[in-house]
Design brief:
The protein has 269 residues and is α/β, with parallel strands linked by helices. It contains 7 helices and 13 strands. It has a single domain, classed as Purple Acid Phosphatase, chain A, domain 2. The strands form 3 sheets. A 6-stranded mixed sheet has the order 5-6-7-10-12-11, covered by helices on one side. A 5-stranded mixed sheet has the order 4-3-2-1-13, with helices on one face. Helix 2 packs parallel to helix 3 and helix 5 runs parallel beside helix 7. It is globular and about 50 Å long. The termini are close together. It binds fe (ii) ion (FE2) (2 copies).
Length: 269
């Protein structure tokens, strides 16, 4: 299967011409599906932007959400409105609430959002302040130590969801060669890139999901015959890191206002 992987398309920041360019890129590449690793729009625009994608892209769209997809809203409202859109557009598939799919003869794709989970680096000392903690109702108005615990819980929830998905697929398909995980937040400091460097100490609390990273290391060590590929975004800077001989994390590039295909990913049938 040939998939056009895009990340952080932030459609709320894109002009009519930018949208046209994006759709033309997709059409030219003739993918069998589009994969988006989060930050599609905002909490108040995600429904209409998913509808726009479903109407204008002529193949199935698999996605996870990113932190921006909850801005100016709260988790429950966004989840409900996205679920509602899915009912009307069978081409849209939210990987977090999806079993995943075989994208190649022995390759399986699954996904969860992930969250900057305040476990790497020093969340209480960093001067970095994300808009998340002012623009997402569930994360607003807390002292830093309380907020840190909430973020840690979010990361753990997504890691638990991912673990359950992996266990289920390995029970059903024990002979897979590769599992591809689509997620928004890089799982390791080594995969949180900025201008060719990764792991900036002040940024990693909000730009890595350590709970998912820890799970991935365990999975890679427990299943050495499976290749684990992670596709993520969030930091808008590209990079690739090999964490184990069978675990690679690809972090995608993005530019506000100019959504693009990060890479055409192809797996053999
Ligand atoms: Fe983004
Ligand atoms: Fe993000």
């Amino acid at each position: 299967m040939k998939m056009a992987w895009c990340t952080d398309i932030h459609l709320d920041c894109v002009s009519t011409d930018g949208r046209k360019d994006f759709l033309e890129q997709i059409q030219r590449s003739e993918p069998e599906a589009v994969l988006i690793t989060g930050d599609i729009a905002t909490g108040t625009t995600i429904s209409e932007e998913l509808q726009w994608l479903a109407t204008n892209v002529e193949c199935p769209i698999y996605f996870v959400l990113g932190n921006h997809d909850f801005y100016h809203a709260d988790f429950e409202t966004v989840c409900q409105s996205v679920q509602n859109i899915l009912q009307h557009h069978p081409r849209l598939h939210w990987l977090t609430h999806h079993d995943g799919l075989n994208v190649g003869a022995s390759t399986f794709l699954l996904g969860v959002e992930g969250w900057g989970d305040a476990r790497n680096g020093d969340f209480l000392a960093t001067p970095v302040r994300l808009n998340d903690h002012q623009l997402i109702a569930d994360l607003t108005g807390f002292e830093r130590p309380v907020l840190q615990r909430k973020l840690q819980c979010l990361g753990q929830q997504y890691a638990t969801q991912l673990q359950q998905k992996v266990e289920t697929v390995l029970e059903e398909q024990p002979h897979l060669n590769e599992i591809v995980i689509a997620t928004h937040v890089p799982p390791f400091p080594e995969s949180a890139w900025y201008m060719g460097y990764s792991g900036a100490p002040d940024w990693i609390p909000d730009f890595t999901c350590k709970a998912i990273g820890d799970l991935l290391l365990t999975l890679a060590d427990t299943y050495p015959d499976i290749h684990w590929t992670v596709l993520c975004g969030h930091g808008h800077h590209r990079g690739s890191v090999t964490m184990r001989s069978n675990l690679v994390v690809e972090t995608g590039h993005a530019e506000y206002g100019a959504p693009s295909i990060e890479r055409l990913v192809e797996w053999n049938d």
